[in-house]
UniProtKB/TrEMBL annotation:
<dbReference type="GO" id="GO:0004674">
    <property type="term" value="F:protein serine/threonine kinase activity"/>
</dbReference>
<dbReference type="InterPro" id="IPR000719">
    <property type="entry name" value="Prot_kinase_dom"/>
</dbReference>
<dbReference type="InterPro" id="IPR011009">
    <property type="entry name" value="Kinase-like_dom_sf"/>
</dbReference>
<comment type="similarity">
    <text>Belongs to the protein kinase superfamily.</text>
</comment>
<dbReference type="Pfam" id="PF07714">
    <property type="entry name" value="PK_Tyr_Ser-Thr"/>
</dbReference>
<feature type="domain" description="Protein kinase">
    <location>
        <begin position="47"/>
        <end position="326"/>
    </location>
</feature>
<dbReference type="GO" id="GO:0005524">
    <property type="term" value="F:ATP binding"/>
</dbReference>
<dbReference type="GO" id="GO:0005886">
    <property type="term" value="C:plasma membrane"/>
</dbReference>
<dbReference type="InterPro" id="IPR001245">
    <property type="entry name" value="Ser-Thr/Tyr_kinase_cat_dom"/>
</dbReference>
<keyword id="KW-0418">Kinase</keyword>
<protein>
    <submittedName>
        <fullName>Serine/threonine-protein kinase-like protein At3g51990</fullName>
    </submittedName>
</protein>
<keyword id="KW-0547">Nucleotide-binding</keyword>
<dbReference type="InterPro" id="IPR008271">
    <property type="entry name" value="Ser/Thr_kinase_AS"/>
</dbReference>
<dbReference type="GO" id="GO:0004672">
    <property type="term" value="F:protein kinase activity"/>
</dbReference>
<dbReference type="GO" id="GO:0007165">
    <property type="term" value="P:signal transduction"/>
</dbReference>
<dbReference type="InterPro" id="IPR017441">
    <property type="entry name" value="Protein_kinase_ATP_BS"/>
</dbReference>
<keyword id="KW-0723">Serine/threonine-protein kinase</keyword>
Amino acid sequence: MGYFSCNAESAIATCDSYNLPKRNRKNKPFKIREFSYSELQSATNAFSQDNLLGKGSHGYVYKAHLHQNKLNTVAVKKTKQTEPRNSSANSPAENEIEILSRVHHPRLVNLLGYAVDNNQNKLIVVEFMPNGSLYELLHSSSKPPNWARRVRFALQIAKGVHFLHCSNPPVIHRDIKSSNILIDGNFSARLGDFGLSLRGHVEDVIVKSTPPAGTLGYLDPAYLAPGDLSTKSDVFSFGILLLEIISGRNAIDVNYSPPSVVDWAVPLIKSGEYAEICDPRIGWPEDDGVLRQLAVVAARCVRKTAAKRPAMAEVVEWLKMVHKRMSSPIWNNIGRRVGRVRESTRVVKYEPLDDSMEIVKISRVGSRRNRKVSNVTSVELRSVVIGGNRKQEIQPVIRSKSIGSLDEIESEPLDLANTRRKGGLAVNMPTVRLSKSRSMGMIQSSTRLMNKNNISNGVVVKFVKKPNGKELEESKLLVNVGKESPRGEN
Ligand SMILES: Nc1ncnc2c1ncn2[C@@H]1O[C@H](COP(=O)(O)OP(=O)(O)OP(=O)(O)O)[C@@H](O)[C@H]1O
């Protein structure tokens, strides 16, 4: 076994075979190549604007054409030139190389090699993803993905995260979000951007001493100090991503009240109002159980208490069931013929979502013919009676105008994507476009970590200036001054 170290001089490194996907374990250890800077320079047309694929918080990503045995298109990540680095800490690029040189999986944007420039900065060469990011597909594509595609993406991402968590030692990604999910040539989802990832067991020094980091909106509220980190923080971020996939909503969106997708969606899921969280651009899936199941999985992933969240292995199994259900022609035919089959159900107690709710598994029973397809189970939410009192019905959340300078934002004409029906009343909401969330290095003051008790629940939002100049660019801090403990149970 040999693994690549960022400081190693060797040009080629092989991967820890333990972490290879099964079909690769027997024969091919993957190879990491050291490129010369000039080779990447000419492959990217001197890092030209034409080759620019995108810009992240740590640098720029370029498309590169390598002429090896055959023409190869790859992506090159070049870190921004900033002030002199603290030599003891790994840069995000070094961290990404270090991690990705040890793991390799079809659901990841895998490392192909690296180069070092004159200032000893590392450039990363990774697989090229020709179909953009999930963020773009969900939020700026004129043809948003349908349910089959969304379920497939969700399962593929879950498999990638599960693979990382099962590696030895585990890899915790810490920055799962839609802009870090890239779409490959087969239109499959891959998890990328390992700049903030950590590799180690929770008791390892590296994990115990690294300050919290992530992207606002996706960041686990229970992850406030290094010691809080576990694979369950990724599960939380995955849950946010799943809510984004279901609803087409940004993780934070000031068009909604509350702006955070989790605060908005979970009460709706708990009260069974699945239609409210369904992306209005694509409507309900043909089999509405698919929506319910996805929503319940998401709600379980975003529980405030990390220990109550499922492991990614469970999430993968649940999503496989949803995927199977979605792609089953038998189910689709019957679903089409009989509409939404809800009658003839047998309620099986499942596992509580929280103190006030229970998830019930509903197996379809009935005719022999129906029983055949009843292997496909659905999961539903029910309110229960606690201490003799039925839990008060949660009022539907009314979308309200965003907090902030809405006067500067024009109202758009009534359309389906922007309309919510509440008791027959169509409400047309103004649109505020948000720039996508950026990774934060850390939620830490320059000298010490935030005091856990003083931390405020806040979201930073940024308005972007549209080419027509109608929206102003500004940053806002929305602070929710509730005194609740960030470690409060749900
Ligand atoms: N392997 C790739 N193939 C094709 N395009 C890519 C690839 N990697 C990144 N990109 C593009 O470059 C953009 C910037 O990626 P990068 O990972 O640097 O930042 P980000 O994830 O968007 O933001 P942040 O750095 O805040 O996490 C992506 O949104 C994507 O459009």
